[in-house]
Amino acid sequence: MILLDEIDSSLKDLKKRSLLRKRVVVSGRKKNQIKINGRWLINFSSNDYLGLSQNSSIKKAIISGINKYGNGGSSSHLVSGHTEAHQNIEKITKNNIGFASSILFSSGYLANLGIITTIVEKDSFIYADKLNHASLNDACILSRGKFIRFPHSDMVALENHLKKNKTKKKKLIVTDGVFSMDGDLANIPELVKLAKKYDAYLYIDDAHGYGILGKSGQGILEHFEKKNSIKKISKERIIYTLTLSKAVGISGALVCANKKIVDLIINKSRAYIYTTAEQPALMYGIKRSFEIIKKNHSLRKKVNDYVYLFRRLINQKNLLVDSITPIQPLMIKDAKKTIKISKLLNELGLYVPAIRPPTVPIDSSRLRVSISALHSEGDIKKLAQAINEIVKNEN
Ligand SMILES: Cc1ncc(COP(=O)(O)O)c(C=O)c1O
Fold it and tell me: Which of 224, 319, 347, 388 fits a 20 to 30 Å CA distance from 367?
């Protein structure tokens, strides 16, 4: 139990190192803008990459779901919370992504926790990318398996670890699909190859890839299937998680896997069993959102064009990271300076959050610019111009 005076000194220390966190209170959202402290700002902080959180046909679908099922989730999936609406969403994933089975969680965090802590045992080995999302790291730690982290995207280091435990049976490689704070992609073809070679399972958290990557927005597997031979590799050894809170624009997560794993989760996953099912009305919205993602290629094109435009307009190319996704961090590195630039942008009506440790490694503080189909070309130009000027003056 932490003592109150220890809390004081811990918070003071965070403040001294420019790492103290405070929440901003948002009092409105309207298209590309959010209202903070009574001011409307252009929002470059959202994971709503396709703008679907504001889509009116999705809103209507959710309201029709409320009319059918009411406002709440009512009880857990294993009691009476699992409705036909939840069941239908799990079926859609089979057709869209091509896994035998899938299961819904109420959030991406819970999905990672619920899956990894259930399938990993004490005698299992986990191999995790060092830049994986915190929810994956928490899940790996709680699983009590042997947790080995390899340097970011270093396939040679990963293979060396796998070689050491070649004869061990229970191995799980864990990775973000799109790395949440950097926007770069995991090397899925190589990870699939290594999983096959060393008889390991591969867990992919595609929170930021689903909706954005792939010809029909079906995420990182579709993105690489086109260019490589992943189709020939059985999905039996892949567990694929997509969150419904980012490009899908709602909330929750779907985990796609073989049927045996899904049956195990239903029976043993504490994070699945001991929580209320997601509100059923949201399933109607998710269904509509899936339809839009699959058919509306122009939304993806718009975002990709903005990404390209933004990268082209930034003068100091060394601030950019190698990312083709709407996550476009600008690596300022120093936490204090990052906060200062974020504040200056805010004064110009642009909301770009400063991301600092422990969310990112020490000395890699950044402005996490996230681009959305809700933006206009003018918004992107305004942001790039403001960043160019501020950064020039700061140097
Ligand atoms: C890679 C990744 N996984 C999981 C999550 C958690 O998802 P959720 O917000 O639905 O809990 C996030 C959220 O930011 C994420 O970036």
Answer: 224
**Cα 89 off chain centre by:** 19
Rounded CA-CA distance 275/272 in Å is 6
Q: Partners of 254 in the beta sheet?
A: 104, 242
pLDDT band at 85 (very low <50, low <70, confident <90, very high): very high
Q: Token pair of 60, please?
A: 């209507």
Q: Which domains does the chain have, with CATH numbers?
A: 22-54+297-394 (3.90.1150.10), 73-278 (3.40.640.10)
Pair 178, 327: CB distance under 8 Å: yes
Whole-number Å distance, alpha carbon 108 to ligand 1 midpoint, is: 5
Global pTM value: 0.95
**Three-state secondary-structure class, residue 82:** coil
Ligand 1 in contact with 83 (CB < 6 A)? no
Q: Is the CB of 109 under 6 A from ligand 1?
A: yes
Give the closest residue (by CA) to ligand 1 atom 14.
Answer: 180
165-190 pLDDT, tens per residue? 877 889 999 999 999 999 999 999 99
